[in-house]
Amino acid sequence: MFGFSPLSTVIWLPMLAAVAVLLTGSDKNAALARWIALAGSVAGFLVALPLWTGFDRFMAGMQFVELAPWVETLNINYYLGIDGISLLLILLNCFTTVLVVIAGWQVIQVRVSQYMAAFLLLSGMMNGVFSALDAALFYVFFEATLIPMFVIIGIWGGSNRVYAAIKFFLYTLAGSLLTLVAIIYLYNASGGSFSLLDWYALPIPFAAQALVFVAFFAAFAVKVPMWPVHTWLPDAHVEAPTGGSVVLAAIMLKLGAYGFIRLSLPIVPDASQYLAPVVIGLSLAAVVYIGLVALVQTDMKKLIAYSSISHMGFVTLGIFIFDAHGLQGAVIQMVSHGFVSGALFLCVGVLYDRMHSRSISDYGGVANRMPVFAAFFMLFAMANAGLPGTSGFVGEFLVIIGAMNVNFWYALAAATTLIFGAAYTLWMYKRVVFGAVANDRVAALKDIGKREILVLGLVAIAVLLIGVYPLPLTEVLNVSVGSLLEHVAVSKL
Predict the structure, then answer these.
(1) Which class for 248: exposed (0-12), middle (13-18), buried (19 or more C-beta within 10 A)?
(2) Residue 86's closest CA among 107, 110, 63, 112?
(3) Is the pLDDT of residue 154 over 80?
(4) Could you tell me if 51 and 87 are in contact, meaning their C-beta atoms sit under 8 angstroms apart?
(5) pLDDT attached to residue 439
(6) What are phi and psi of 357, to 5 degrees?
(7) Comparing 70-79, 213-222, 300-309, 416-425, which segment has the lowest mean pLDDT?
(8) Looking at the predicted structure, is the pLDDT value of residue 188 above 50?
(9) CB 416 within 8 A of CB 288
(10) What is the pLDDT of residues 404-420, one digit of tens each?
(11) Contact, 21 vs 117, CB < 8 A?
(12) d(Cα 465, Cα 389) in Å, to the nearest integer?
């Protein structure tokens, strides 16, 4: 613990930077707060890079493990470690934090230090979720992420922000209470251990497995969110500031999917397989039904929010078909969705900052006034539709291959997202960007500046790199996915 601890660093460095930002005080020191936040977010990303360079792609099990006593009377430990799945999500989180700080540079003018600090705190907490190997530590980080996002929506959100913030908080908190009960049961069943790795080897009767699975499902399904417990997300996205929508879509939704992978599948494998058809059915309902709901939206943010739910249905489908291609595709889809959905919210934020409207009908002919922006927007729209050569295609393609290996009808239903995704995304893009200039407000628009080009350009590079060359991601995931599926395949009964 006294040497360089990379996982502790990626958790606590952003939080320390958040404290430094808060110490700048009032908005008189807003410029200083922004620069400290930028330095903290960039440093947070840089200290995460050794995780990538030092990760052994051929080693099964957890790496960069840190273990120290925390609450000794209850045998709760500060226990950290990552595999290939955790690694990619930590890097995505750290990268997204940098983008959010830059994106909010000029947009946020009130309570700047608190705004920046909230995102830095959130970044560290989510890294804690992705690193925790102690169930109590996982639960603390998992629940703590609600607080900064609640504040972000509730203070810097839209006119209905208080309603959206409370709905977000209550939905996600209520689901997590059952998870706490399951954690206490597993703690007692294991003889007083909160170690997730100990729980992986725990022989649990099938009836108890089923109850534990339902308890975990209550928290993780809401967080994803899966249909029909998804209704909090459109409200949260619409009311959240642009940065809040970006982090919510790019990272926070992944906490639920990660919970399925880290807790549900390895701890209760028999119940996971037995109840998988239910989860697959809900996932396909999200892919198909929510895709149709997205088609009728008139608010750009709501459309992208429903698109996120549909695409996350792909993720849960890939997890619960118990196929190597499907699970690899699910994780890559999580990473891709983080970039693409986050970029789409950034694009909507660019337009909203100029016209203060998210209604599709208020736009038209934007390409005539903002050609550079229109080019970026098109790339991200194509990626959202799953165009080959973009990151959006890779994960969906692997999940469909995995589904085909399991059940043809699963694959057929899942593939409809390529049709619906193209339909609602291109419908929105056509009405907003193409055609004649719709009105004087559109005629007065100015193209994006250097700061906005930097943010969108970094995401565009990531989207294209993953789309053209996904091999580094599949190499990192290969052993971790294989080890997990091998563990799940061995019945504990």
Answers:
(1) buried
(2) 63
(3) yes
(4) yes
(5) 86
(6) -150, 140
(7) 416-425
(8) yes
(9) yes
(10) 888 888 888 888 777 88
(11) yes
(12) 9
Residue whose tokens read 């990303």: 45
Give dist(CA 398, CA 306) in Å, integer: 22
Is residue 44 within 8 Å of residue 92, measured between CB atoms?
no
Rounded alpha-carbon distances, angstroms, from residue 316 to 230, 253, 280, 343 = 14, 11, 7, 22
Q: Which residues contact 409 (CB under 8 A, 6 or more apart)?
A: none
Percent of the chain with pLDDT over 90: 37
pLDDT grade for 492, boundaries at 50, 70 and 90: very low
pLDDT at 490: 60
Beta bridge partners of 66: 80
Specify whether the CB–CB gap between 237 and 304 falls below 8 A. yes
**Lowest pLDDT segment from 85-94, 177-186, 406-415, 461-470:** 406-415
Task: Give one word for 365, left, alpha or beta, with left for phi > 0 and alpha for psi -120 to 50.
Answer: left
Angle, vertex CA 311, rays to CA 152 and CA 261, nearest 5: 80
pTM: 0.91
